[in-house]
From TrEMBL:
Organism: Sesamum indicum (Oriental sesame)
HAMAP family: THF_DHG_CYH
InterPro entries hit by this protein: Aminoacid_DH-like_N_sf, NAD(P)-bd_dom_sf, THF_DH/CycHdrlase, THF_DH/CycHdrlase_cat_dom, THF_DH/CycHdrlase_CS, THF_DH/CycHdrlase_NAD-bd_dom
Family: Belongs to the tetrahydrofolate dehydrogenase/cyclohydrolase family.
PANTHER family, sorted: BIFUNCTIONAL PROTEIN FOLD 1, MITOCHONDRIAL, C-1-TETRAHYDROFOLATE SYNTHASE, CYTOPLASMIC-RELATED
Tetrahydrofolate dehydrogenase/cyclohydrolase NAD(P)-binding domain segment(s): 212-359
Superkingdom of this protein's organism: Eukaryota
Tetrahydrofolate dehydrogenase/cyclohydrolase catalytic domain location: 73-191
Quaternary structure (record): Homodimer.
GO molecular function: methenyltetrahydrofolate cyclohydrolase activity; methylenetetrahydrofolate dehydrogenase (NADP+) activity
Name of the protein described by the UniProt record: Bifunctional protein FolD 1, mitochondrial isoform X1
One GO location term (cellular component): cytosol
Length: 364
């Protein structure tokens, strides 16, 4: 009797749960199972910065002695060039095989910055000729609802890229981010957050299917601006799975010497001031003051922090982690907010989705 019940019970499992088991089996086929040893693991503490996070080293600002201001790295202009090339490739694909890339986005809740990101992705996708689908869930939705929607996109042959807009709401910790991201098919993980993608990014001699979009955009900004990375001291502020961690891994791949600062780092100001390349992804408005910046450093400001502004169409505006006015008097180059990393993140998402579609259609 028990033997006959097993296939019946398996069939009754939600599709996303079966997907999780399939993913686990796949992972085990690639490597031995890792047994976690509590004695080797530290507490998983939140990397929560504040505007006063350990700023004990208040050194005076060292401005450059010449009368110049930092070069503004125009991410919007660079991204427009990339998007133009993508649009041309999509037109060629449509003409030759009658197909176009498809991108699906899931948004949970009403975070202002997340809504801004999704709005920009929607506009950009339509401009380059992608098929675009979006599902918006309320903040109190269930994990099962999100996972089932992801599985429908996994099975949809017209969709080549799937992303869940992060971070997810943490209402009573009801949504397990890792579990949700694991449901996305590896070949459609254009955000690059699947554990196999991140793991391959960290390992020498391995290549991820997709590199996370914001870190990829940061590196592309540096390269297209002629900034030398090899051999330079790079400091990354923040260690999130979305930006900080993969950015530090990418910088290492480009042979920089990388230091990562987090909310428990002592004297972060002093360490940041040693950076030739300073990447801030802490999510705190104006955390990085002029005294944190080495004269001549290149600054990549990933922070997109919404602050109330009644004059704005949406009732708020975005500012970065870096005090722009102070930093431009010291750095050699800096990305603005908005108009720096944000447009590049969207451009890299389009690049990844195009590559996924090319692979699916065997199109070159």
């Amino acid at each position: 009797m028990r033997g006959r019940l097993v296939p019946i019970l398996a069939a009754l499992q939600p599709i996303w749960l079966r997907r999780c088991f399939q993913t686990t089996s796949t992972l085990r086929s690639f490597s031995n199972q890792i047994i976690k040893s509590p004695s080797l693991l530290s507490l998983d503490l939140a990397d929560s910065w504040s505007s006063t996070s350990k700023q004990s080293d208040s050194s005076p600002i060292q401005e450059n002695t010449n009368n110049w201001t930092a070069k503004i790295i125009d991410g919007k202009a660079i991204a427009e060039g990339i998007r133009s090339r993508i649009a041309s490739e999509v037109s060629r694909m449509k003409e030759l095989i009658g197909q176009v890339p498809g991108l699906a986005v899931i948004l949970v809740g009403q975070r202002r910055d997340s809504e801004t990101y999704v709005r920009n992705k929607t506009i950009a996708s339509e401009e380059v000729g992608f098929k675009f689908k979006m599902i918006v869930f309320p903040e109190n939705c269930t994990e099962c609802e999100v996972c089932n929607a992801l599985c429908r996109f996994n099975e949809d042959p017209s969709i080549h890229g799937i992303l869940v807009q992060l971070p997810l709401p943490q209402l009573e910790q009801h949504l397990d981010e890792a579990k949700i991201l694991n449901v996305i098919s590896l070949e459609k993980d254009v955000d690059g957050f699947h554990p196999l993608n991140i793991g391959n990014l960290a390992m020498q001699g391995m290549e991820p299917l997709f590199v996370p979009c914001t870190p990829k955009g940061c590196i592309e900004l540096l390269l297209q601006s002629g900034v030398e990375i090899m051999g330079k001291k790079a400091v990354v502020i923040g260690r999130s799975n979305i930006v900080g961690l993969p950015t530090s891994l990418l910088l290492q791949r480009h042979h920089a010497t990388v230091t990562v600062l987090h909310a428990f780092t002592k004297n972060p100001e002093k360490i940041a001031r040693e950076a030739d390349i300073l990447v801030s992804a802490a999510g705190v408005p104006n955390l990085v003051r002029g005294s944190w910046v080495k004269p001549g450093a290149v600054i990549v400001d990933v922070g997109t922090n919404p602050i109330e502004d009644r004059r704005s169409e949406h009732g708020y505006r975005l500012i970065g982690d870096v005090c722009f006015k102070e930093a431009t008097r010291i750095a050699s180059a800096i990305t603005p907010v908005p108009g720096g990393v944000g447009p590049m993140t969207v451009a890299m998402l389009l690049c990844n989705t195009l590559e996924s579609a090319k692979h699916a259609f065997n199109f070159t």
